[in-house]
Amino acid sequence: MEQTEIIQEIKRLCVEHNALLLAHNYQRDEVQEIADITGDSLALSIEAARAAKDVIVFCGVHFMAESAAILAPDKTVLLPRTDAGCPMADMVTPAGLRALKAEHPGATVVTYVNSSAAVKAESDICCTSSNAINVVKSLAADELILVPDRNLGRYIASFTDKTCYFWEGYCPTHDRLKVADIERTRADHPDALFMAHPECTPEVLALADHICSTSGMYAYAAKSAARKFIVGTEMGILYRLRKDNPDKEFILPSTSLICPNMKLTSLEDILQCLQTMSPVVTVPEETRERAKLTLDRMLAVPRD
Ligand code: 13P
Ligand code: SF4
User: Fold this and answer.
1) pTM for the predicted model, two decimal places
2) What is the DSSP letter of 162?
3) Which atom of ligand 2 is nearest to the CA of 233?
């Protein structure tokens, strides 16, 4: 089938099944292009929950589709590639988190949405890269357990006087970005601003002009008077940054900023998923109810 035929058929099947096509900001260009909505983890979860649709096709990684299934149990949530996981989410298990909680019984557990439903169910509240600071500021506890990203955790900890305990997980993609990459790129482009995702290491974040979620980067680039930006996150974000800001230049400081999981989903996978209405992502009801509490508490925190 030609690509134009595949796209037409995907669109037809979306109408037939009353399906909403969501794509994370790191998805392949052609997947972002056909999506009804592109966004960061938080925005996509909210859209999944509130859309008047029967089916959500989640072009992203497993924990994102799980969040949609937790928030919208009345909808069928499809993940075109079941092998699209998130290595950072896999670095923490419910048993491991229970052990850390036992060491710090008074601490509130703040869990990054990049985690399984079972880990969320062991937590008190979730956060994403776009609301983490507000979430932490909303909490009364003096002690926090921050799971699973050590880099986001330490970034959050720099905004609070609370005692923080960290899980030593990390995103292999963002962890690959090194100080030397930024220094070299800055030397080549001294007039560029450096925007970084909080999953980058503390040493890299220390060099950033602006630290934000993937969608935060769109907002920052659009409103900034600067013409050049060094982009400290996964390369999929370049597609819309360049499309929306044709007069600005976006530079990737390293060729290794690719998340292989985010790149798995192809147009053919989306078509097959709509033809077969599978694979469906579900969460056992008892886990779902407990995990939903943590997402609901997060969604109740006022946003900027
Ligand atoms: P965002 O919430 O900023 O989209 O980040 C999700 C993610 O997986 C980053 O690696
Ligand atoms: Fe997970 Fe990193 Fe890929 Fe985001 S970029 S999905 S945190 S592995």
Assistant:
1) 0.96
2) S
3) 5
